[in-house]
Structure prediction request, 139 residues.
Amino acid sequence: MTDSIPVWATILIAVITTCGGTVAGWALRRIDRMSDTLTRSDLDRALADSGTIRDLQAKLDRDYERLEASERDRRALRLDVLRIELFNHTRSRTQHERQLEAGKEYIALGGNGHGHARYEALHRDYLRREAECDWTYQQ
Prediction:
């Protein structure tokens, strides 16, 4: 048999057969692993049936509601602080500028009504003082 097939061809066939078996084995292992892979929907179904996950979800929902209430309260408090700043008696240029900044923030947070009117009055007064270079405030 070695007389009819050259040695190099015999070696080539042996290498191809060995490598082909390795590649085929790798491909079969890969296919087997794919059939054992969990999909996202499988995982979601398993987690939905878990009591621990349901308890955790309920706790997260309660925490989220508390956070929203806290944010509403914080916003209301911030508006109150800005309103107090706006309605303070203006005693200096620095305070006047701070009141204008507070007014801008007040309006940006959705404040309106008397606070908005006070901001506009402060703004007009500041422009007047700037034009007249009058920075003397009544104590």
